[in-house]
Amino acid sequence: MKNKYHLPTPIGIALIEGKANGVEKISVLSEAPEKNFQDIELTEAAEQLKAYFEGNLQDFSFPTQPQGTAFQQRVWQELLKIPFGKTTSYLELSKRLGDPKAIRAVASANGKNPLWIVVPCHRVIGSDGSLTGYAGGIWRKKWLLEHESPAQQQRLF
Question: What would you report as the CA-atom Rg of the chain, rounded to the nearest whole angstrom?
Fold first, then answer.
């Protein structure tokens, strides 16, 4: 049985699922859960996510165990190479994986990423710079990219 941890974030409730040997899934909920879980084995992951949202963490170090096909795992490993505050396109990602024609397969694997934010699929955009395809909603993708932007506008008033 998977342990669960619900973490409030500025863009929804994060649901962290996993076991002592690693987090298997992080997703965002559209609605508040009926029951709030905070299993102690997932506290480290929750604390790191909290630090990310507070602007104090850019790289995650807790153990993960994402489940997926060999191809999906390759795509997710490539996503981990996208630096904080940077983006890449689906085409560039396909090229880095060795097949520029695999854009749709790469986009599909990107959409099946089980580790929201930790495996930064939100950093993949269209070749024209558009914010395309994000399972958590385009508004969340926009928020995450702005949160990670190195040139954040400060309010003057």
Answer: 16
Q: Where are the alpha helices (DSSP H) in 28-86?
A: 43-53, 70-79
Q: Which H or E run contains 141?
A: helix 138-148
**Catalytic option among 16, 93, 107, 121:** 121
Cβ atoms of residues 49 and 7 within 8 Å = yes
Q: What are phi and psi of 113, to 5 degrees?
A: -55, 120
DSSP H or E run through 108 = helix 103-111
Whether 121 sits among the annotated catalytic residues: the reply is yes
How long a stretch of residues is the chain? 157
Place of tokens 């084995």: 41
DSSP 125: E
Interval 33-73: pLDDT, tens:
888 899 999 999 999 999 999 999 999 999 999 999 999 99
